[in-house]
Amino acid sequence: MRPLWLCRRCGHPWPCGAAKVALLAEYRDNVVSLCLYLASCLHDAIDDLHQLRPNDTGSTAGVFDRFLGWPARHNRSYRLATTASLDEEESS
Q1: What is the CB neighbour count within 10 angstroms for residue 14?
Q2: How far apart are CA 74 and CA 25, in angstroms?
Q3: In this structure, are residues 3 and 49 in contact, taking their beta carbons and an 8 Å threshold?
Q4: Distance (Å, whole) CA 23 – CA 14
Q5: pLDDT tens across the length of the chain (92 residues)
Q6: Exposed, middle or buried, 38 (CB in 10 Å: 0-12/13-18/19+)?
Q7: Are 23 and 15 spatial neighbours (Cβ–Cβ below 8 Å)?
Q8: Using CA atoms, how far apart are residues 53 and 55, in angstroms rounded to an integer?
Q9: If 0-12 CB within 10 Å is exposed, 13-18 middle and 19+ buried, where does residue 67 land?
Q10: What gap in Å lies between CA 15 and CA 82, rounded to an integer?
Q11: Considering just the CA atoms, what is the radius of gyration of the chain in Å?
């Protein structure tokens, strides 16, 4: 729900847990496109939230993490797990 950037289904800040799962499924083959989409959402959210509450938009780090931090953490743990699996296969 813009301009509040809340999930229409659960009312939590978007992207909520369900939205993250849906986004990962939708962009499973193209992480770069996911990050570009979320970066554009971040830009829009900063503008919307600032217009609603100019004195209380939250920390920059918090807003950044909300939109762009979680895919980086998700992909990093996926890469680490994949690398570990490949290393195990090579040593076998």
Answers
A1: 21
A2: 12
A3: yes
A4: 11
A5: 898 899 999 999 999 999 999 999 999 999 899 999 999 999 999 888 888 887 765 677 888 899 999 887 776 544 544 445 445 555 55
A6: buried
A7: yes
A8: 6
A9: buried
A10: 26
A11: 16
Look-up of token digits 């296969």: 89
Provide the residue count of the chain.
92
Residue 55 is predicted with a pLDDT of 73
Looking at residue 17, its pLDDT comes to 94
For 75, the token pair is 């992909």
Return the pLDDT at 57. Answer: 56
The token pair that represents 49 in the structure block: 């939230």
DSSP labels for 14-33? SS-HHHHHHHHHHTTT-HHH
Structure tokens at 55: 């004195």
The CA-based angle 84-88-92, given to 5 degrees, is: 170
